[in-house]
Amino acid sequence: MNPATDQTLITATLQTIRPLDEVAMQAARDRQNRLTKPAGSLGRLEDLSIQLAGIYADPLPVIRDKVIITMAGDHGVVASGVSAFPQEVTPQMVLNFLHGGAAINVLARHIGARITVIDMGVAADLDPHPDLVIAKIAHGTANLTEGPAMTPDQARAAIATGIRIVNQQIELGLDIVGTGEMGIGNTTPSAAIAAVFTGVEPGNIVGRGTGVDDAGYQRKINAVRTALTVNRPDRQHGLDVLAKVGGFEIGGLAGVILGAAARRKPVMVDGFISTAAAMVAAAIEPGVKPYLIAAHKSQEYGHALMLDWLGLHPLIDLDMRLGEGTGAAIGISLAEAACKVLAEMATFDEAGVSDKGAE
Amino acid sequence: MNPATDQTLITATLQTIRPLDEVAMQAARDRQNRLTKPAGSLGRLEDLSIQLAGIYADPLPVIRDKVIITMAGDHGVVASGVSAFPQEVTPQMVLNFLHGGAAINVLARHIGARITVIDMGVAADLDPHPDLVIAKIAHGTANLTEGPAMTPDQARAAIATGIRIVNQQIELGLDIVGTGEMGIGNTTPSAAIAAVFTGVEPGNIVGRGTGVDDAGYQRKINAVRTALTVNRPDRQHGLDVLAKVGGFEIGGLAGVILGAAARRKPVMVDGFISTAAAMVAAAIEPGVKPYLIAAHKSQEYGHALMLDWLGLHPLIDLDMRLGEGTGAAIGISLAEAACKVLAEMATFDEAGVSDKGAE
């Protein structure tokens, strides 16, 4: 960890983020209206193609290399009994990702995406594997009910690591990134982050995560309330919120988001935890918001409030609540479809089809 | 047209339709609960995999050959000024399908599906093309505001043709069929069908189709009201409703649905017009309903009422209203993903991941 280097990278990244390209968006909009279909009849696929044109600054964007970045981390707050699953499941699921047996593996294969798995702070030591990047900030966060989850330097390191990871993937060809995560207990810091930014009382934003029972659910709400009281995170400062009530994989994903936006790549935001990371990123630099696409509305209670805060309207709602990037995978397939519609459909002129005016 | 042969085929098809296979569904449900994810966390993808297991009578179904059947027909009611586009667009769009330039071509390619285009009753004579099946019942329907859209024999012929078409596709390997259609004016008969079966007043079910203006919209509502008054279709008899206020491509799709269900193949129902066809099929034989999957909620006003009548809950809502099978294509990709999740994910035992009980 080198705090000065990390801060320099973060600052340079933030300074690079620009608004969407209006010229490319207008060209895409004009073309959508000349394609052989009633104007607007492809609904959100049309809107998505226009947003993507603006992100890439390209009136006819093409999505080839699709990457899911799935970041793993552990959470000291599991000691407070907030999760239905034991902490050992985090490294076990990382191995499952590496062996191709998890839901995200199946869905990534289905849409033709690559997955890269990052150990941002798993409490166990993982064996090296060609598909695993070990970028551990620490062996899990501290328990946020007793003090900050991490130090400010660790928060900076998590974000800088995310930026470096996405930059490496962009060098490898990444056209669109889906955010994914794994970390037993990580809906608790995510709910805390959501409560801080939205100002909503924890009881109205905490959900059951992987399926905690009634007593555990009450402990989880209490843990978030205690975390806010003990740490008093400053909602004006994204890094402070991340350090006090966040997680290493959440910080890493915030870095991925900032880094992708700086390089004009769209981010398909997965569910509850990924959206908490997006809130941290947007608090640090609101200019990332136009680069975000909300893949789906998670079944996890409170997710809709978080999307509203970000001004995002999810593409789908399939009652999913798994994380890992599973919702993002489906969203990426829709983004690819949107670009193909824009690029590959014939115009009225090309196809010799009479437009509405011909009536 | 051979009415006796058509009726024999229809009767034999209806007699073949069976309930879903409960044993396969239970096996799929049990397996979903052993896969490495919190139970139920993949939401509707899990439900879909279980339904598909029941349809195929296979606890681990595999979807390989995906087919969109797009049926085209014209409608005498266009003379009443109900559409924003001129009737010549129907054959022009058929050519666009054959040349690969329409939205359904792009989306079918995206999901790896084949398209077959059927002329069920286009008012123009189409040139032969290797990818076009000419199965014309007539050169467009009669104007349903002045009398029946077609004769009972034509209605039977349309349904029997749909059964034959889907049977041919099943012989070629079809694992799942998406319904698609093209026909200037065809939201008007579809709204009439919906009004008959739901009993909803036409003003509450007619939409703007491809984008008719206010005066045209009023003409369209009046056309549906007049059609019901003039023809008095009997909602207890699907064939009577189809003949009096339907269309040839709608009857063809009803046949596709009945034929697919009889051969235990799932039907991904597209939007407004396809759902009207599904209502006709379900009125003829309610046993088809478990074989139906509603791909999406169309933006076309009234579609939600039709889905409710069928007891279907759409997978997605992307504000689409194009038809052609475009929504079905996206839905088919989700169905394929659902099967892959069920078949390809590791179980807790296989992956060495601790289940919830291990806490």
Protein architecture, described:
2 copies of one chain form a homodimer. Helices cover 49% and strands 9% of the residues of chain A. With 359 residues, chain A is of the alpha/beta class. Chain A folds into 2 domains: 3-61 and 342-351, 5,6-Dimethylbenzimidazole Phosphoribosyltransferase, Chain: A, domain 1; 66-336, Nicotinate-nucleotide-dimethylbenzimidazole phosphoribosyltransferase (CobT), large domain (Rossmann fold, 3-Layer(aba) Sandwich), CATH 3.40.50. Chain A has a 6-stranded parallel sheet, sandwiched between helices. Chain A is globular, with a radius of gyration of 20 Å. The model of chain A has no long low-confidence stretch (mean pLDDT 97). The interface between A and B is large, with 60 and 60 residues.
- Low-confidence sequence ranges of chain A: none
Per CATH, what is the topology of the largest domain in chain A? Answer: Rossmann fold
Helical segment tally of chain A? 14
Number of domains of chain A: 2
Query: Rg of chain A from C-alpha positions?
Result: 20 Å
Taken in chain order, the helices and strands of chain A follow as: HHHEHHEEHEHHHHEHEHHH
Helix/strand structural class of chain A? alpha/beta
**Separation of termini of chain A?**
68 Å
Lateral arrangement of strands in the main beta sheet of chain A? 3-2-1-4-5-6
CATH class of the largest domain in chain A: Alpha Beta
**Mean of all residue-level pLDDT scores of chain A:** 97
Indicate the multimeric state.
homodimer
Approximate shape of chain A: globular
Reported for the largest beta sheet of chain A, the result is: 6 strands, parallel
CATH architecture tag of the largest domain in chain A = 3-Layer(aba) Sandwich
Residues in β-strands, percent of chain A: 5-15%
Number of strands of chain A: 6
